[in-house]
Amino acid sequence: MTGRIETRLKDLGISLPAPPAPVASYVPTVKTGNLVFVSGQIPAAADGLKYVGIVGQDLSVEDGKAAARLCAINLLAQAKAACDGDLDRVTRCVKLSVFVNAVPGFTQHPEIANGASDLMVEVFGDAGKHARAAVGSGSLPRNVSVEVEAVFEIA
Which residues form the Endoribonuclease L-PSP/chorismate mutase-like domain (predicted)? Predict the structure, then answer.
C-alpha cells in the first residue's frame, strides 16, 4: 500500500533517490526521541553534482532556488530511510537551515531558501511549515551553491 506522502510525491512528479552515503566522518541522520536530524544535503543527483558554483557569479537566484529544492529532495530521501521507508511517520518539518554559497554582499538568501521551504509545504501541507535559517557562506563542500539540513518530528 502506498502511503499518503508517497502518493503526494508521485503527484508532484518527484521520485526520491537512494539516500547518498556520507562522504566524511558523520552519519546522515540521528534519531533522538521523536526527532530526526538530517545532516546537510547538497544538490546531488544520480548523474552527479548539480548547481556547482557561486550564486551571483556563476549561478542565478533561480538556479540557487532549484538547488535548494534538490537538496530538500535529498533530505526527504534521508528522512525516509530514517523512518524505515515510511514518510507518513513525519508529523512535522521542524526546522531547515539553508546555506548559500554566494558572492559578498548577496542579500537574496531567503528567496533561495524558499526552494527547500516551498517543497516541504508542497509535500507535507501545514506540517511542512517550519522555522528556518537562510545564511550566506563563503564556500561550501565541492563548491556547490546550496546545502540544506533539517529537523523532522516523527511518530
Answer: 6-144
**Is 102 within 8 Å of 138 (Cβ atoms)?**
no
For residue 20, count CB atoms less than 10 angstroms from its CB and return exposed for 0-12, middle for 13-18, buried for 19 or more. Answer: middle
DSSP letters spanning 123-143: HHGGGG--EEEEEEES--GGG
Low-confidence ranges of the chain (pLDDT < 50): none
The CA distances from residue 27 to 15, 78, 98, 137, in Å, are 23, 11, 19, 22
Cα(83)–Cα(64) distance, rounded to whole angstroms? 28
pTM: 0.97
Domain that holds residue 147: 30-154
The CATH code of the domain that includes 59 is 3.30.1330.40
Return the sign of the alpha-carbon dihedral for residues 120, 122, 124, 129. positive
Q: Could you tell me the three cell numbers for 68?
A: 535548494
HSE-CB for 87 with a 13 A CA cutoff = 23
